[in-house]
Amino acid sequence: QVQLVESGGGLVQAGGSLxxxxxxxxxxISDDAMAWFRQAPGKERExxxxxxxxxxxxxxxxxxxxxxxxxxxxxQNTLYLQMNSLKPEDxxxxxxxxxxxxxxxxxxxxxxxxxxxxGTQVTVSS
Length: 126
Description:
0% of the residues lie in helices and 48% in strands. It is an all-beta fold.
């Protein structure tokens, strides 16, 4: 099992930017699809974006497309989420997750992700 630790959250004004990091330990994540999810107060956890194992292909939720960018450095065992043009509705706890499963990246579902971080809070003020 891989351990994931997110960091980089904080309080930012609307229109601002944050960069989240997710550092993995215990094993390499170079063979894993990696994703970001978020959960706002009183809401269910939702998909934000996903990267295939090499980071060449990424997909995003419509709500963040064009504003958020996922990247990864497999040599550093780290996943990133660059968040620009932040909106108050982006306020949530952000989680990274890893999936090592024989399934097309784009077809992965939340239940396919076996490893999760503890989350980092992002708060966007209006």
